[in-house]
Amino acid sequence: MSTPGQVAPTDNRLLTSAQTYTTISEKIGVLTLSPRSRPLWMAAFVCSLLLTLMFAAGVGELFEKGVGIWGINIPVAWAFALINYVWWIAIGMAGTFISAALYLTRQAWRSSLNRYAEAMTVFAVSVSGLFPIFHLGRPWFFYWVAFYPNRMGLWPQWRSSLVWDFLAILAYLAVSIMYWYVGLLPDLATLRDQAPTRGKQVFYGLLALGWRGEARHWKRFESLNLVLAGLAVPLVFSVHSMVALDFSEATLPGWHSTLFPPFFVAGAFFSGFAMALVLGIPLRRWLGLGDIITLKHLDNLSKMMLAAGLFVAYNYVVEFFMAFYSGDPYEMAEVKDRLVGPYAWVFWTVIACNVITPQCLWSPRIRRSPGTLFAISVLVLIGMWFERFMLIVNSLFRTYLPSSWGMFYPTVWDLVFLFGSIGLFLFLFVLFVRLLPIVAIYEMRKLIHKREEPG
Amino acid sequence: MSAEVACYGCMAFFDTPDALVDAVRALRKAGYEGVEAYTPFPLEALGEALGIPGNHVSLGAFIGGLIGGVGMLAMQYFSAVLHYPIRVGGRPFASWPAFIPPALEVTFLLAAAGGVLAMLLGNRLPTFYHPVFHIDRFERASQDAFVLVVCSHSAKRDDATLKSLLQALGAVQVDEVPA
């Protein structure tokens, strides 16, 4: 081992030889336990808090007056709430993919990303789950979707994809939280042992549940990680398929298609990798994590984003092909509306953001320039939001009967809920950055150990 | 502390994972039972050196998943066929293809919960008090120290021999752990 304390933070190799068990534990622990004064963190905290308060005001208004404050009406009865719901839950998917699928395939580099990616998942799914509840009309009765012995003698309708979806979100949120928390235990113990004050020691000590790192404990811990990863991968695919079934179970042109589940899963990974980059690039820069989240990580993430993006583009093509291949005039009319109808600008935004922009990622130079990557990822997130707008609104606004056609115009409350939910997500993430270790410390030590092993 | 305070065991600190694994092997060879090893990250070699048997985590997950899947299917059957049968779109009461998605999700949920429960129970967590925390330096065990404990109930209890053996094996510090 070399001497500690000589770490060049700008080095772009993963864990330079100067990093030892001691230095890596301190480097990450200190970010949580005694951070330098961080005006940027404070700014992010205040901005996201203000947006969260705006969101809370929106919720208050919604509970007071009902869903009429939004721009929804017949025929477009589903709009921003459902768009936001699908958008957020999709963003969560990539977090689980990074931590579970890359774990099962033994991609050691994932250790730098999985903690914040899992946090991203937990927060995105939490935010996402709020929207179907808000959309209920009488949100305080949301628990009627659940099955429990009740005096009305009622059961949920098991054949409805909305009930499946409720269970999918519930299972996904609970499993994500378990996976995240179990992985945190050893790191919480590290923070407990490093804590400079009694208060922090008690706080992290309680959270760590008395973790000691005994060999038998580690063995069970590793078995559990494997089991949870094995469960999480099919869970991710099933959850977003259920989301897609909410649409494909309905007999609407543009929705009623078996293409939807794989299409939605691809879109989910696409936007999730984009969010992982949008969060990772500032973390890396502002917290000096250049030797943990390296350019190689950004490169890998953008390659995965490109692959998912190509699959999404392929789906756009198949959708169009199937519409004409089906010979169904309503399907064909839906596609024509998409291309040249009143919402054509949405379609072209989607193509620009989701199909054209990601093609820049073929260039290795762009894949390794954080600023450009950040911009591309933001565009992808915007594009994926508009994709959901296109899928939802464009199918609803002109249904079978021309007499019931109508446009959708958002109100200011729609925007409050969209930007407020972004604020709430960022608020939770900013708190996470301050309160919990943002990199899995024990996995970093494991990587150092691997490096020192001969061969 | 009075002299009668029981002793939990003898704790030795090592600087490297290899030294710890070698020490564990040597102690087990010398016939010591009740050897515990504390490390800042999972160390595969320790499992074999300590002779750790398999664990029940995957069994817990399996049982949880079984309860979730079979239980959910049974409940849907009970609800849709026996307790509150209602025709929807001319479909049969027991429309089992539609019962699979809820059963699948609850299988995932309870399998994960079963695994977590098995891990916590097997590891006896939460345990906020444990004798090893008496040693101040033990806090390095979650950062950079590799720690070995020989429990007092070990068959060959002779402190002086044990201590000199541990030091010979390269321990940088040896402490008595009060119970």
From TrEMBL, chain A:
Segments traversing the membrane: 40-59, 79-104, 116-141, 161-182, 224-243, 263-283, 304-325, 345-362, 374-397, 417-442
Major localization class: membrane
Localization of this protein: Cell membrane
GO cellular component labels: plasma membrane
Record has RNA-binding as a keyword: no
Membrane topology, from the record: Multi-pass membrane protein
InterPro entries: NrfD-like (IPR005614)
Pfam families: NrfD
Entry keywords, A to Z: Cell membrane, Membrane, Transmembrane, Transmembrane helix
PANTHER family to which the protein is assigned, alphabetical: POLYSULPHIDE REDUCTASE NRFD, PTHR43044
Similarity field: Belongs to the NrfD family.
UniProt-recorded name of the protein: Hydrogenase
UniProtKB/TrEMBL annotation, chain B:
Transmembrane segments annotated in the record for this chain: 59-79, 99-121
Superkingdom of the source species: Bacteria
Keywords tagged on the record: Membrane, Transmembrane, Transmembrane helix
Pfam families tied to this protein: ActD
Protein name: DUF3341 domain-containing protein
Organism whose genome encodes this protein: Dyella monticola
